[in-house]
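lol forgot to send this yesterday, sorry. struct tokens for the thing we talked abt
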């Protein structure tokens, strides 16, 4: 080994020593850690943290390293090299087709598969994620200028436009204000969240336009009921993503087939297979269909997403959401559903 190799090995040894002395939950933030004549110099990522959380991070690093015999002094430099999280938008052309229900259940199913997921309720004019994720009683707090997401009981963090605006005042939030609110939520203190699902308002309005400009999603899931009119609107919503070069991950058919709770007969109030045919005509992947069931609606109102069922995919109301979440998980891993 020459001198260069020696010094490289010793730098690496120092770095490993310092990193290992830190609590596991903050190790991922460390960009570099060096030790020079008893002085530990740690550079850590804190772009997503507010003032109080930054102070705490600094203290945690100082306390952990000052206990080492090799260290006399600790210097911490916090940088704001904003960590990139994946953003997936869930959109529809029309309201009431089940976009929010799908977003919640995909988030819960992905969290149960081990992903760290956050939900953003971008539907400023009719926020529903607080009800769906049972966080209605929680108030969003802030650390300095950073909002702190709310922990739902299902392992999914969330923030809603509804947390930023007093009930009944949403209509005054037009244009740039709505877009700004969305930016503030995307920039919140999401911590180790790796994936944000945005439940968009229906259509192609202000929130969508500002999202495409400032927080362009990595992909979009479109949801539609099987009626022709809903499909045409979904196509229009899809166009917005295509125009902005956002890949459409696929199309979901919601409220397809209604199983009569008394006799089990399946009827198709909105037609059958329409969304799949439509997806194939547009060469968009078809991600799956979610039947219309009384349980799904009641579960939504009660803040108990079917995807959180203890029975997992053995629960017939959870299964369709889990199947679509698995397709999404494959897309996140290999870019293909
Ligand atoms: N598969 C389903 N089976 C039964 N009810 C459903 C299903 N999907 C959604 N619903 C119900 O339909 C209603 C509308 O759903 P949801 O709020 O998810 O739609 P949305 O497209 O987000 O609507 P909005 O545009 O108002 O935000 C809710 O009462 C919900 O519980």
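and heres what i got for the seq, position by position
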């Amino acid at each position: 080994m020459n001198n260069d190799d020696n010094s490289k090995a010793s730098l690496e040894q120092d770095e490993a020593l310092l990193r290992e002395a830190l609590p596991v939950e903050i190790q991922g933030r460390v960009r570099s850690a060096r030790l020079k004549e008893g002085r530990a110099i740690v550079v850590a990522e804190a772009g997503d943290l507010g003032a109080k959380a930054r102070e705490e991070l600094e203290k945690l690093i100082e306390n952990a390293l000052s206990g080492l015999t090799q260290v006399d002094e600790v210097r911490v430099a916090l940088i704001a090299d904003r960590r990139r999280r994946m953003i997936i938008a869930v959109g529809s052309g029309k309201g009431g087709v089940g976009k929010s229900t799908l977003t919640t259940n995909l988030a819960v199913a992905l969290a149960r598969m081990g992903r760290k997921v956050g939900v953003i309720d971008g539907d400023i004019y009719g926020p529903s994620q607080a009800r769906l994720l049972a966080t209605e009683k929680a108030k969003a707090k802030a650390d300095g200028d950073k909002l702190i997401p709310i922990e739902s009981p299902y392992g999914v963090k969330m923030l809603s436009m509804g947390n930023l605006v007093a009930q009944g005042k949403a209509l005054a939030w037009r244009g740039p204000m709505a877009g700004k609110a969305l930016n503030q939520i995307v920039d919140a203190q999401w911590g180790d969240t790796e994936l944000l699902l945005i439940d968009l308002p229906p259509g192609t309005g202000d929130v969508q336009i500002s999202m495409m400009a400032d927080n362009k999603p990595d992909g979009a899931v479109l949801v539609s009921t099987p009626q022709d009119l809903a499909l045409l609107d979904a196509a229009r919503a899809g166009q917005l993503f295509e125009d902005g070069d956002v890949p459409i991950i696929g199309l979901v058919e919601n409220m397809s087939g209604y199983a009569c709770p008394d006799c089990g007969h399946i009827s198709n109030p909105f037609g059958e297979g329409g969304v799949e045919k439509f997806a194939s005509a547009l060469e968009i992947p078809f991600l799956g269909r979610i039947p219309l069931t009384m349980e799904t609606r009641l579960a939504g109102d009660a803040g108990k997403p079917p995807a959180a069922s203890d029975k997992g995919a053995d629960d017939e109301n959870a299964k369709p959401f889990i199947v679509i979440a698995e397709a999404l998980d494959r897309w996140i891993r290999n870019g293909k559903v």
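The two ends are 48 Å apart (CA to CA). anyway ping me if u want another try
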